[in-house]
């Protein structure tokens, strides 16, 4: 457990709502757990270990029938509690109960708690105000990236890289010429950078135009990256016509939005990246949502190559002490919080009665299996 | 040797006859042995370790000349006894003798004995009556599957899965509603299921029509899966118009065939699957053979994804005790026979003088190699 | 270090000159070292560890600006000495100094010294007379091959394989019917074969025609393979009209050239193969250069499959003693020289003060990193 890289007792975004069909489950690995997600009813979601208690087939290859997940191999039907409910010609009462996961659908995402189920508490899912208001629109996507999820946290908590990785869209020289400041409060870390009286880069020029504002005049630009555990980064970004108050300028002088990043470990060295943008202007303009999504998808794809090579390099030189400069403070402090959560989790696990933690939480041994 | 998953002292199907050309050898790994198959003469077949004694090149990349396998690198010529017969400008008497394999061509298949060659006995190749009679036609194919070959035995010895995996072709609800019975006798295991007075599924409707029989009347359907070691599964399947005697009905009331499955381990976790169907009606109708082959190929491909995911799951949870239900009896009993054969093989190997078994059975050390 | 397969204190060809652009670096692994090659000025080349001292990003994904290599992640600028020269808003004096590599551009190739930099001496780069003379033309290419680089040395120091691998172009029966002789002198090994009064194979017929000579008369043909460490093989090849002196015939009776092979280990079991041909006739004919390059590229590609399978076979049977016949003398003697160089290197490494050799030669620890 010493080298655990992520807390498991936490809510992670596992999928976008539209990824789970009415009949077709979704198999996805989160924090090392193979999980089959499915909809017992159209507006419900359930999550069980993606492993049929009968012969180990992947339940996610099956289908949903009468609220149960049917194994596509021999027809075993499992419920959202991990218990087998039926199987043709079999008495199933004694079948082992498989691990079931606390899972919630909220804000258009599927949230799962991969660790100790007794600690799952839906009220701990972060509240996203933009997702609850009609004044906001959201568009986003999903990338699979071959790197430790913490490299993505580092990436997002230091937007200096926009100057280089995203030079032609949101990057601009003034970013790395402006100092950042980082504060952490409780489990939250905020890194901010303010750039005054600069020209907007292409992405923000388009946003100004979309908002009916002149795009050829100086602006004040801001980036406020906010980390909350286990690995969510919300970034307030925007520009306002210069001298109108910047981040605090009235709505009619600015274009702003929230870059939404849910970062979910798949394994120690691969991750799911749910990226998106929430904006509180022209919320009804679906064409604009699509066009921003397309633009953002392209921009964020530029990070993939950098991160995957960085992962390869860090594996090759595991003992190298990376520099921790002021621009890295956001990532460094976020990682400290993660480490603290992992330690807490490991300590509580040691205290629990069940010293041997099995991935397959079998409640009872099968009574009904037949000997030959 | 403890974790050996297959017996090596047995006949396995290594290839279909047409895979080995007159000049072009075939390189294939069977039970962990890299083997070069070739034809010394048009109607003969030979098999030697796919490793040139000179510099280790793959002999299967070479060609056949005058009954010898010529290495495509430097022209060494090896015979079917594993002995080097010639090499330009070299005296080859002292070259090490490489492992040669007992190999037979029978019924349109190439059979190989990968283990102890002194025990190979061609009379142990199973007799296939359908392959010897003109009343029968056969068509089939080959798939490479990334799973332990025993998962395929389980699959075929429990046809309950047809209801689910093959729902649109040969599957039907009545299969998993009908009990199976399993007997084993000696090294043979038979699992049978009989379904009376049901409607035929699409595949069998077509077979009835092909046989000139009404396809819209109730039928009696049967499945008799027969395992013989090391890993052959022959399945008597068919339908007869209801009440005419089912499996024992006269020929004019039924459509029946034998599903032919030769299951050959490549390694511990990959396998070659030789599948096919033998039928004793319209044996001369080659177009029908082709159309059945195409249909069966599509049906059997549906199993691949299920088996490969199952393999991944079982690797992830190696300690999970799979359930052994009545429907699993066929697979369970077949595996017991396999385990017994492996134990016997290991015991006899311990008794043999040659305690250290080398994959490269070098008969004598080279006398003629030159020192520099 | 015992199993080291290549000397590291040697000049290896790492790239063709045209692979390194003016702004775009080249990332390439040589002898296990990840190296970023770039041009500080149009006619210069530099090489540093492909690892940004800041966060481990691959420097080769960045770009060149004002003679410095700029990391594409956060803008750190590194110099050809491995020292960080600048980074936006940072004082960089205390940043660790990364490994920089001796690198030279000569004869259209980029030469790198991957090992102990204190021993690098540009005068040790082999002199290639053909590359210095206007009477010669050169064309070549690069292949990545999944095999131990020494298998390629074996391949080139025994051209017997032309008869088999390259049967339709440069191979001919007379090759393996003619004896070879091998001498080694100092660090050089020469294997020669002379074939008298034979018909030229297709490739040489074309060369004769290109040279204005009859292609349908008997010729004397020669092959002189010359190995020099660490892994360069230059092969004098050619044909002269029979009886005119063969290798020593006057220019007007022959077509000859040098097959140029720079063999560079990437890792223990993969390699870069820089192949080409230098000819001293029609040196100005670029179309001829292109056509020879195309032909040679096709011929040399035939070796790839053979070598990659050979590698797989040798890994599977690591204890098999390969035969060492007279035709193998060139490779065997070349390997002895390589082994001697590796031993010398290891001994000198033991004597050096720095007992622990780190891949990351950090000269000084960062002074300026900030604690949080």
Automatic annotation (TrEMBL), chains A, B, C:
The keyword Ribosomal protein does not apply. InterPro entries: ARHD_Rieske_2Fe_2S, Cholesterol_7-desaturase, Rieske_2Fe-2S, Rieske_2Fe-2S_sf, VanA_C_cat. Gene3D superfamilies: Naphthalene 1,2-dioxygenase Alpha Subunit, Chain A, domain 1, Rieske [2Fe-2S] iron-sulphur domain. Keywords: 2Fe-2S, Iron, Iron-sulfur, Metal-binding, Monooxygenase, Oxidoreductase. Pfam families: Rieske, VanA_C. Residues 11-112 form the Rieske domain. GO terms for molecular function: 2 iron, 2 sulfur cluster binding; iron ion binding; vanillate monooxygenase activity. This is Vanillate monooxygenase. It comes from Marinomonas mediterranea (strain ATCC 700492 / JCM 21426 / NBRC 103028 / MMB-1).
């Amino acid at each position: 457990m010493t080298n655990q890289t992520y807390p498991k007792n936490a809510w992670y975004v596992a999928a976008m709502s539209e990824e789970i069909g009415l009949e077709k489950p979704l198999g996805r690995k989160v924090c090392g757990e193979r999980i089959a997600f499915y909809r017992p009813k159209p507006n419900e979601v359930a999550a069980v270990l993606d492993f049929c208690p009968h012969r180990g087939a992947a339940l996610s290859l099956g289908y949903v029938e009468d609220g149960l997940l049917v194994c596509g191999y021999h027809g075993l039907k499992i419920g959202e509690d991990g218990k087998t409910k039926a199987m043709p010609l079999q008495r199933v009462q004694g079948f082992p109960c498989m691990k079931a996961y606390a899972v919630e659908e909220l804000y258009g995402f599927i949230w799962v708690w991969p660790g100790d189920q007794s600690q799952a508490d839906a009220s701990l899912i972060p509240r996203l105000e933009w997702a609850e208001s009609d004044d906001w629109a959201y568009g986003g996507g999903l990338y699979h990236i071959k790197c430790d999820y913490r490299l993505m946290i580092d990436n997002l908590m230091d937007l200096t890289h926009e100057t280089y990785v995203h030079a032609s869209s949101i990057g601009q020289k003034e970013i790395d010429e402006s100092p950042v400041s980082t504060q952490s409060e409780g489990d939250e870390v905020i890194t901010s950078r303010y750039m005054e009286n600069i020209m907007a880069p292409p992405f923000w020029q388009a946003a100004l135009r979309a908002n009916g504002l002149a795009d050829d005049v100086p602006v004040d630009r801001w980036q406020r990256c906010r980390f909350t555990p286990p690995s969510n980064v919300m970034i307030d970004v925007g520009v306002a016509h210069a001298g109108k108050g910047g981040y605090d300028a009235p709505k009619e002088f600015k274009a702003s939005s929230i870059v939404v990043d849910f970062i979910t470990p798949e394994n120690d060295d691969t991750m799911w990246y749910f990226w998106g943008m929430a904006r509180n202007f022209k919320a009804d303009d679906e064409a604009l949502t699509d066009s921003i999504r397309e633009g953002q998808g392209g921009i964020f794809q530029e990070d993939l190559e950098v991160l995957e090579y960085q992962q390869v390099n860090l594996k090759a030189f595991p003992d190298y002490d990376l520099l921790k400069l002021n621009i890295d403070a956001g990532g460094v402090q976020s990682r400290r919080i993660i480490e603290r959560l992992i330690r807490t989790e490991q300590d509580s696990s040691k205290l629990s009665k069940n010293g041997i933690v099995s991935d397959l939480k079998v409640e009872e041994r099968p009574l009904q299996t037949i000997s030959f």
